[in-house]
Write a structure and sequence with these properties.
This protein has 322 residues and is of the alpha/beta class. It contains 9 helices and 9 strands. It has a 9-stranded mixed sheet with strand order 1-9-8-7-6-4-5-3-2, with helices on both faces.
């Protein structure tokens, strides 16, 4: 598959050591059993109440097959953010869980939770008008609720975030904005737009952008707010997220042109000397692309989760708070 892809790796220095977990007696670690023992994940769906949003949010969680049978094992957690016009079940309905189960069956990854929240059309940011505080919900309510309900390793080094298209934008934004919460981030076909023309056209691709962006970024589009939240802007100051491990890719024939934004993000991070992994791959946009390439982000996060588990085990710690 790499023969059809142009893969680029930045080799600047990696981030600092993993943050200490909280002080309590460590349970068994998922990695201690090794990836070969892993089997298919099972999906559990629930609602998370939110005082910040004034409503409940639908969330699905892909759990390791032995989660219910085990009473002490704690697991790393990957938050996966869906694309526009999708929801919390799209990952399982359209093949994401099959990709994960295939890697589990082949012993290429071990066991971790995948959290799948419904993000609506929020782009996973707080809306410019303050009406939809989705990013605040995500950080202040969702992550703590998942750590309370499930046996997670509640440490940033064992917590990752990923997404596609709108969700790729959200994953990059949230991770760059909250590196104290997430140790790793990845994105496929992220909805990265280097520059919006002014005046904004009302037809064609730009007309589509104007319609979907007006909810989170203002109507009419607030260019200043869009720029402030854009991962391309956040990447101007990578010292703020110096310990974040980052992977992203995009199709070379992305029908929305998002390869331009992915290339711009790569060039900006490289110019700042920030270590990251980037790949321009053969393909378009959507699940036809994801079915081929989602495995690379899952492998990326799993390798980091393994390192985190070993480090925490060596310290006699396996979870708790950051």
């Amino acid at each position: 598959m790499f023969s059809k892809s142009k893969t680029i790796r930045s080799v600047a220095g990696l981030g600092a050591a993993i943050v200490m977990a909280s002080l309590w007696n460590p349970p068994a670690l998922a990695a201690a059993r090794g990836p070969a023992a892993a089997s298919e994940s099972a999906l559990e769906c629930l609602t998370i109440p939110s005082s910040l949003l004034g409503r409940s949010v639908n969330v699905c969680v892909a759990l390791p097959a032995d989660y219910s049978a085990s009473t002490s094992t704690r697991y790393p957690t990957l938050y996966y953010l869906h694309g526009l016009f999708e929801n919390q079940t799209s990952w399982s309905d359209r093949g994401g869980q099959e990709v994960l189960n295939g890697l589990l069956a082949q012993g290429e990854v071990g066991k971790f939770l995948v959290v799948l929240p419904d993000g609506g059309k929020s782009f996973y940011v707080n809306s410019q008008d303050g009406h939809e505080r989705y990013e605040d919900f995500f950080i202040q309510e969702l992550v703590p609720a998942i750590d309370r309900k499930y046996r997670t390793i509640a440490d940033r080094s064992a917590r990752g975030i990923s997404g596609t298209s709108m969700g790729g934008y959200g994953a990059l934004h949230i991770a760059m904005d909250h590196p104290d919460v997430f140790g790793s981030a990845s994105a496929h076909s992220a909805a990265l737009i280097p520059k919006i023309p002014n005046p904004l056209p009302t037809e064609g691709r730009w007309g589509f952008y104007a319609r979907v962006l007006q909810g989170p970024f203002g109507s009419p589009l607030n260019q200043t707010y869009f720029d402030e939240t854009n991962p391309l802007t956040l990447a101007e100051n990578p010292s703020r997220f110096s310990r974040l491990k980052l992977y992203f890719d995009c199709g070379d024939h992305d029908r929305y042109g998002f390869q331009e934004g992915a290339e711009a993000l790569h060039q900006k991070l490289a110019s700042k000397g920030f270590a990251h992994e980037y790949a321009l791959r053969s393909g378009d946009h959507g699940w036809s692309y994801l079915s081929q390439y989602m495995k690379y982000s899952l492998l990326f996060h799993w390798h980091l989760f393994e390192q985190a588990e070993r480090t925490l085990a060596a310290r006699g710690q396996a979870g708790g708070t950051r």
